[in-house]
UniProtKB/TrEMBL annotation:
InterPro entries: 6-hairpin_glycosidase_sf, 6hp_glycosidase-like_sf, Gal_mutarotase_sf_dom, GH65_N, GH94_catalytic, GH94_Enzymes, GH94N_ChBP, Glyco_hydrolase_94_b-supersand
Keywords: Glycosyltransferase, Transferase
Protein name (database record): Glycosyltransferase 36
GO molecular function terms listed in the Swiss-Prot or TrEMBL record: carbohydrate binding; glycosyltransferase activity
Residue ranges occupied by any Glycosyl hydrolase 94 catalytic domain in the UniProt entry: 301-712
Domain Glycosyl hydrolase 94 supersandwich: 11-281
Organism domain of life: Bacteria
Gene source species: Caldicellulosiruptor owensensis (strain ATCC 700167 / DSM 13100 / OL)
Coiled-coil zones: none
Amino acid sequence: MNFGYFDEQRKEYVITNPKTPTSWVNYLGTSDYCLIISNNASGYSFYKSPKLGRVTRFRFNSIPMDRPGRYVYLKDEKTNDFWSISWQPVGKPLDKFLSICRHGLGYTTFESKYNSITSSLKIFVPVDKPLEIWEVKIKNDSNEKKEFSVFTYTEFCLWNSMLDMMDFQYILYTCRMGYNKEDEIIDYSIKLWSPYEPKAFFTCTNKKIESFDTDRDVFVGPYNSESNPEAIKNGKCFGSIAIGGNPCAATQVKIDLQPGQEEYLVFLLGIGNAYEEGREYKKMFASIDSVEKEFEKVQEYWKERLNKFECKTQDEKMNLMLNIWNQYQCHTTFNWSRSASFIEAGGRDGLGFRDSSQDILGVVHSIPQEVRRRLIELLKAQLSEGYAMHHFQPLTMSQGKHNIPPRERIYSDDHLWLLIAVPAYIKETGDFSILDEIVEYADSGSASVYDHLKQALEFSWNNRGKHGLLLGLAADWNDCINLKDGGESTWSTQLYYKALSEFIELAEYIGKTEDAEKYKAYREEIKKAMDEYTWDGEWFVRGYLASGKKLGSKESEQSKIFLNSQSWAVFSGAFLDEKGKTAMDSVKKYLATEHGCVKNWPAYVDYIIEVGAITSFPPGLKENAAIFCHANTWVIIAEALLGRGEYAFEYYMSFLPANKNEIAEIYTAEPYVYSQFITGKEHPYYFGRARNPWLTGTATWAFTAATQYILGVRPHYKGLIIDPCIPSCWDGFEVERVFRGRKLSIKVSNPDHISKGVKKILVNGKEIVGNLIPVELLDEKNVVEVVMGK
């Protein structure tokens, strides 16, 4: 069954049944202010930091789910009946209550109809202002006059999200609520041990506030909940001022509606003082026109970001994801990293080094200047020895506060992602000047970006084990494989091989031949070690344990084959040969399912201390034989590099969220964004169930795999490569892409119905040699005709 549908024209996902299996959310906001909102209006917002700037409260992993949020209640003054515009929290019977939620790009709208009253609530965050706007419309479709009280409610968090959840003996005695009577604005402030001590406000901009509450316990009442607040039953708020306790922003506005009449209300929740910023913003958004103009800016913001790439293939679900939702998720993940979701409570805010290094790949074509700034932030979190801080907070680092990891918490892969990220930026932009920029290290000293890259390579070279493979250290990309005390990671070694190749290509291109030759020798040595110690006959081992036993081998006692060491054998460029093909055949044989490839097989059933935390999960969950979607994207790339277009596309579709819309009761997560993992085939009950949506590296790599390897349009230092690997049944496809300020309209035809191979390319009517379009041949607008063939 499904719970909604894609509205391609409006770029929305429309939820028609609010009883979704899990909360289906949207992210609103673009810079400092972020709002996460579910299809039932629950969720929370934060300012700059989800840990230290939490504005509103959300109860994680709670019963009932989806509490609290941003609620607008309507009460019929004649009948005393009341409901919420969103289905929850009141939860009227759905046979009498029509509920629709529209998640759009930068906004969410709730539409309802009950007792001949049509109402809507649209919530969005302006592009450049730290606030959220609630736009309410109420229409009387009956034949009689109606008198209503409109109540609003949201619950404030006490800024520090961790203290708010854990330290009630302290945190519940810190809030200072107030009310600006002259301007009718609720004022919220608090003093904490925090570098962020902002104030917040809440108001209605265009109607008189009849009553208010700022104390949650007064508004809701003892033994009540958000579904039946005492103030609404009472008919008005109590005027409570919370000094300590649980702060909230609750208001009452009265409206009368003649038959057919519609009323429009605007509420603001924002950062600032009620007597200063609150007063200013209330005046700014007093008119309908001013709110609509602000909303138009949000729409233009997303239009500008999504119009740098658009495709038209023979698969509508692929088009939906690549043109709208996959890109939207890439930008969301770039903005907020991994710390703020309905899964991550926000206590670990800031940037994951490896995460953010990868996240740039999905947005560099769209926002290159922002990517450049992010790269510099990342480089500042690298240490002079070459490794990187696994997780860091740029806001506190700018104040000189560095959380330098101890040696036992160094990851073997973090720093190497710089060798993927920086070349990707330069290939997209042609901006080689970044290599000369001097950036300080996190501990001491500074160096050019180019030397930062060299230092990353040197650290890995100096941290190899007895087989010549990279030490696994605290972990590699798979956080739960912990090969300490001399254990070696095949996958990190494959990433190192890829990083060396990227650096060699870059060094040669800029004339650093001596460096290129040096690292070619490194690469040759690494290839020799992989040839000798990682091939297991049908696949590549995952590594070596500290005891010397193989990990992910036919000889292993439990799990015998791992996904990453097969896909990266090919993706790294080390094994584009029969070994690579055989390894990928083993993926198909042992790991592939209808929902994607499991991460390892068979699942671990017993805990093994020298393997690590992966063995603590039940079979089919998280790291232990689940379908880790991030890892599945590299399978697509590997098959495309091998020229096996059917397999590449089959794998792409197997975990595509839009492909799960019809089986949403099984998939359970949002069918418009990628999840971290899908429960694997060895789980006894929930095979095919997705978990941890939105903030995952799957987004950027799924976009990269589809656009650069299936469609095959990828940047190079010299220009743009066209190298598709598609299902042979396709007649072709079209791509509109902006590259270095030039627009390309690319039309690919496949008359011979092959999967890979380009026979001819015409650029503005002139045939070129090969499949790389030199940037100097491009005009401001370009027509590119590509004919596939052998």
